[in-house]
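Late entry, evening session. Most of the bench is empty. Finally got around to the prediction I had been postponing all week. Sequence below, unchanged from the version circulated by S.P.
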Amino acid sequence: MRISELDGIINISSDGVTIKDEKGLLAIMDQLVYEAVFSEEERRKGLFILLKEIAKAFGAFPASIQGLYEEMGKNYPGFTVPAINIRGLTYDSARAVFRQAIEKKTGAFIFEIARSEIGYTKQRPLEYSAVVLSAAVREGYKGPVFIQGDHFQLVRKHFLSDPAAETGYIKGLIQEAIDAEFYNIDIDSSTLVDLEKPTLTEQQRPNYEKTAELSALIRELQPPGIKVSIGGEIGEIGKKNSTPEELKAYLDGFNETFKGSPGLSKLSVQSGTSHGGVVLPDGSLAQVKIDFETLRQLSDIARKEYGLSGAVQHGASTLPEDAFDMFPATGTSEVHLATGFQNIIYDSEHLPDAFRDEIYDYIRKEFANERKEGQTEEQFIYSTRKKGFGAMKKKWWDLSSDIKEPIMAELEKKFGLLFHKLKVENTVGIVGETVPAVIIGKQMPDNILKEL
C-alpha cells in the first residue's frame, strides 16, 4: 500500500498525530500493519513508529504497571496479573486478547516477549510493541497497554566466558526495549547464583549485584514521567524451589546495593514449574505439582516486609485449568504464560496438516543438532516447534482468514478463561486509578513524512 492512502485519515503536525477519520483508520489498519512487518528494514522502522503514534492518538498508549504494583504492595487486591508471551500470529493473537479485555472490562494484563523469543520469533522490541498497539486500535481498546521485556537473562556460559560482553548485550537490549516503549522489564540474573559459596548472601551476590547494575541503567534511560517496572528473579525456572531465606538474602542485598528509586516491583521465584512443561516420550505433558504454599509464603514476605507486589510465577501456561484459581488465592502478583498458547495454535484442527508438516520438516532439518540423546520424535518436535514461528513468519501471517479465525476463537476462549480464573475481570478501574496516563511522543522519521 501507499502511505499516502492515510491522507484524510490522520494528520501529522509538530504536535504529533491526530486522527481525522477513525472508521477509515480501522478499515486500513490490517493492511498498514502487514506493510510495516514485511517492508524493507528502514521503512519498517518508520512504519512501526507511525503505528505507535497512531495508537497513542487513538488512546492506547504504552505504560508502566509500577503504580498498580505499588498499590499491590500496600493492599493486595485479590487478582493475579497475566503476562502473555505471543510467539506467532502476534497481531491476530493480540486482537483476541483485547477483545476479551474489552468484554470483561480487564485492564490488568501484560504483553511480553523474552530475550530468547525475540531471536527465534524474529520480533525485535519495536515491531512487537507496534504490532500489539495496532491490535489495540483495531479492536477499539483505549487505555494503558503494558508491554514487558521478559527474561532479559544473562546466559551463564556466555557470562563466565566474557562477563563484559554478556552484560553489554543485555544493556543494549534494555536500551532497545525502552526506546520501543517497553516500560516493564524483568531482569534475570538468577543464572549467576553461585551455590558453591558458603552463605545465601554470597550465593545470591552475583545475582543481586548484576540486577542492581542493570536497574540503575533502566532508571537512567527511562523517559521523564515514566517509572519503569523492574522485576528480579531468585529461582531459575525448572530448578529447585525458592525459599524465604533466599528471597531475603537477595532483596536485602539488592536494597543495599541499588541506590536508585523506586527499586524492584516484583520477584520471580521457582515453585515447581518448568518452561513449556515436562514432555513425556509420547509427546504428552507430565502433570506438574506446583508448590502453592511456596508462592503464598514468598508473596507474603515480599509484600509485607519489602513492599513489593508479590511473587511472580513463570512457566504456568500448561498447568491444568483448575490450578489457575490458586494464584489469586495465594497472593501471587503475576503469572507468565506462553507455551500453552503456542500449543493451541499448533494443535488446532483448523491448522492445515500440510502447513504443520512443512514447519515440522523445516525443524527436523534446521535444528537436528538440538535433538538431545534419548529424545523421541514427539519430544523433539514439541520442544523445538517454537522456532517455526520466526523463520516462516510471513507464511503464518499469510494463512487465510478461514484458517486463522477459528484458531483465534480457540485462543480467545483461553484468554477469557484465564482472565476469569486470575480474577482480573473489572480491573479497568483500579488500573485507571493507579497508572498515570503519561504519553511520550516520538519524532516521525523523515522517510515516512516524505511518503505522507
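Two things to note before I forget:
The chain has a mean pLDDT of 93.
The chain has two domains: 3-58, 64-345+400-434.
Will write this up properly tomorrow.
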